[in-house]
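Please, structure for the following, as tokens.
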Amino acid sequence: MREESYQFLKSLVEVPSPSGFEQPAQRVFRDYVSPYARVTGDVMGNSIAQVQGAAEARARVMLVGHADEIGLLVKFIDDNGFIFFGAIGGVDPQITQGMRVAVHGKNGMVPGVIGKKPIHLIEPKDRETVVKLDAQYIDIGASSKKDAELLVRVGDPVTFHVGLERLAGDRVASRGFDDKAGSFVVAEVLRAVSEAGKELPVDLYGVSSVQEEIGLRGGTTSSYAVKPDIGICVEVDFATDQPDLDKKQNGDVGIGKGPIVPRGANINPALFDLLIDTAEKENIPVQVTGIPRATGTDANVMQISRKGVATALVKIPLRYMHTPVEVISLSDLENAVRLITATLYRIQSRDAYIPS
């Protein structure tokens, strides 16, 4: 991966963006894509970048990846300055205790830790019990409620205090790849199209959406506004090449083996065929999975927006989803960009995606 793209990825995943508080990440996205596209925003906080195609453009195409990540939200501060919180999105209470966190207050980031009773003081019968999130608390070092309230307010968002880390080979770990990896791919496609020096046969809209983790909300409103004929959602999906996952349930998916192109009710069959044919022609490795129902991604709401949209998914294999140590392969990101970019130049008339 080129260094400028890697630094963009690093900046994107390391800024805070829990659902409802995505604007630090959206500013990074907008700054990066502004040389390549006309960028606007909306009241939800979505960022929408437009690249005008040929005068006889065949269709309006929307790419979308969501910028929001899971996180926590301050709900209560007790008399001793300990902070109690709720979950933003699907936070696993098994992994939170003992974690370093960052509370994003009005005057900047406040470091803290999620405390835990020492194992020596836990009754043996209780050691296997998961402490519920509403019983967990953050310690920022304050000695009273008054001291804590000088730094933190009820309603402040909280993220795990970790950043991007290189592992062996081309693999990297971070919080927030779900789904800043998708926003990254959307931005890199906009760059690739701009630098190709070849006019697109479609009008392209690249969207970094918000609030996906709490109900596909930004994807819903941006799809309604853009009015695409064709939509490709860029997401992450469960890699099953770790020891504790069942391939019979989630398919045979490995990181570093190419992006995933699912099939199922949420996927337009002609658009799926185009993606697979493009992968074969361009010698891009892909993996195919089956999703027999609505996907739980922005592709779901995009497909049923207005009169309906021909939708597809391109997904990045991901280990350890919704943890602070999500792992992906950089080559999967790059191949997703190659696949989507090449596909855009092969899109036919919007009528070609009406099932027959």
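The longest helix spans residues 177-196. The first strand starts at residue 38 and ends at 41.
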